[in-house]
Amino acid sequence: MANILVVDDEIGIRELLSEILGDEGHVVHLAENAAQARQFRQTDAPDLVLLDIWMPDTDGVTLLKEWASLGALTMPVIMMSGHATIDTAVEATRIGAIDFLEKPIALQKLLRAVQKGLERGVGVLRHALSSKAALSTFPLDASSATEGSNGNLASGAGAGSDHPSGTLLRSEMPLDLPLREARDAFERAYFEYHLSQENGSMTRVAEKTGLERTHLYRKLKQLGIELNKAGRK
Length: 233
Prior knowledge:
By secondary structure, this protein is of the alpha/beta class. The chain is 45% helix and 16% strand. It has two domains: 128 residues, Rossmann fold (3-Layer(aba) Sandwich); 95 residues, Arc Repressor Mutant, subunit A.
């Protein structure tokens, strides 16, 4: 079972894809425009995104570029369109989309693309970790991250330390975990790093990560990161 975000301005397409993917056991989230997709991505990281190219406010390629520039393209994205040119499909692939589906979408082609996308999810995360958006090391407070004998990350309180004494090397990220757990570990290290760099200032961390403060608080709570009272500025 996977969490899949469907972004399409046509209600019929959204409902059809939701029904098909729901029948396959997936949890489907729907967005009718780029604004709703942005909001969802700020608070959650889906396992896969089905993204329409032609939408009235912001087109799918522009949204894809935005996610890529913000380092938020940590999930596989499959583009969809009934009118896209080959150049548009190539551009989307160059930016980071893993596949392109032409409307009307055949059932078996959809299911194959989704399955392939989910299988490649760990590869997308690995690419994000090795890109310029990911730092070569993630300084953490020693009390907030410990490494067990199996190399998996265990997190607790202590984010926001002025003098981090432990480091989690990129090569030590637990990529052998299921995609969602590995992504949570990466995001936990990412936010703990920024909290440490900004001495726990939520205002500056929100600016650095591109999240609104309310969404940032929600994300930190979701990841189990506790804040020092002095850091809630």
